[in-house]
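To assess whether the prediction recovers the assembly geometry, we first specified each molecular entity separately, as shown.
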Amino acid sequence: MNNKVQNNRAWLLVLPMLVLVAFSAIIPLMTVVNYSVQDVLGPNARFFTGTEWFESILNDSALRAAFARQILFSLTILAIQVPLGIGIALIMPKRGWQASAVLILITLPLLIPWNVVGSIWQIFTRGDIGLMGWGLRELGINYNITRNAGDAWATIILMDVWHWTPLVAMLCYSGLRSIPEAYYQAARIDRASKWAVFRYIQLPKLTNVLVIAVLLRFMHSFMIYAEPFVLTGGGPGSSTTFLSQSLATMAIGQQDLGPSAAFSIIYFLVILLVSWVFYTTIMHMQKDKNPHGGA
Amino acid sequence: MYRIENTQQGEKYNTIFSRTTPAQRRKRNARSRLRSRVLLSLYLFLMILPIYWLINMSLQTNSEILGSMTLWPQNLTFDNYLRIFNNPSWYMGYVNSMMYVSMNMLITICVALPAAYAFSRYRFIGDKHLFFWLLTNLMAPPAVFLLPYFQLYYSVGLFDTHIAVALAHCLFNIPLAIWILEGFMSSVPKEIDETAYIDGYSFPHFFIKIFIPMIRSGIGVTLFFLFMFSWVELLLARTLTATNAQPIGMIMTRTSTASGIDWGTLAAAGVLTIVPGILVVYFVRNHIAKGFALGRT
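The predicted structure of the complete assembly is given in tokenized form:
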């Protein structure tokens, strides 16, 4: 990053991309902003409402509950997936046909369409035809995701761990592969314990990829939609209704343009804030690496 | 050879300094390797189980699925798959999904390559802000864009076409592609560019003839990620289509009718959505680890 040439003609290279992304990001976002401050009753009947929609969204107790659930969900899956992902990466074979086979198998859940992931788990956890639901019932455990909120939560978390731990594991695995063999030899000569090797050789190399992993996982879990929608439909009651689902119901189901636009903006601002924190963290880490670099 | 020599050297040091004999140490190493193999197999087994169950169901008749608990198909049947392959309204779902995914991959890679080159080689006014803005698009929840997309594509007459979904998926795929490609490009030494320019290559000539072949594994991995994120996304694809360009994920919901859910066909359709992913990951298996680190290791 440190020996880049100053050249404003580079904008020409960025331009095609900019036009496309602007078409699919800026125009829609402007529409949202437009709706969020108006009450649209018909094609020619719209009134300026100011911050009314924002106030009503911020005071909506159902949405507040969804927000709290969302935070709880994101933090829970991070707390499980990050250590589990590191653990799996550490025990994955490093070379040979086994390494290829394990790689392909591990990435498998990432390549399944999200609603199919929901379907797989819906089938898998059904008491009558699913292996897990049937097995738990045979063991005498009263397990029912359509009635019991606790079961629904546990299943959604299990599903997300199943679905996304591979991403964390793959990121960590690629980080581990970049450690030169000589480091391990030096550690062996020093008679370093396994823990010391992990703490002083592997973990420092992993911090970079872990920041990316946490960023991606937090963001994706924050916009989770299809999987819980198919698996539980947000129920029982609204115990597993997350933010995206509340928003989709409001925007498409009820066609409440104003409130859903205001909701979208608040949702987006939260994401923006978190992205910014991560972005500055990543940039600082890169700066620490090459302290003489200008960028 | 280098590695073997080094390990032997390490072995020698170890015999000098450590109290455990090499035999003991080898035994301990073997035991820890066995333990990690067992743990890994256990994880893989638990991971495969739900997928196995789907495959298992797709090979059974509905009466067998609902009738009794069978851990493997008693009367193996491929009827569920045949039903999908013989019905255009089913298999067109796969064709539709494939079409918008490949359109998206093509558009994205064409605009992302020059942009990533600009980010990796030049400093220009607003470059950092632009990069951050791109990242926010990667993080934007599709639900936020549902309604405006619907209205935008409806008003320009693109609703229910493949290109509409392909363009919508550019929202998160272009930033992702630029992020990954930038990493791969930055690992190519700048001297190569400079030498080529001194040799009289024009920028387009150099870029297409020399630079792109040099990062082709990076491009392959990028295409894999583009495929992955466009293939698995459904919320936008579903909202922007009605009948002509409907993705397979949406057609799958048709299995629930008044007379109950057609579990066998649903399972077979699900299995078929996994197959393209396996094919794609097989092609990039040797480069995928680097790709997951966004080309930065």
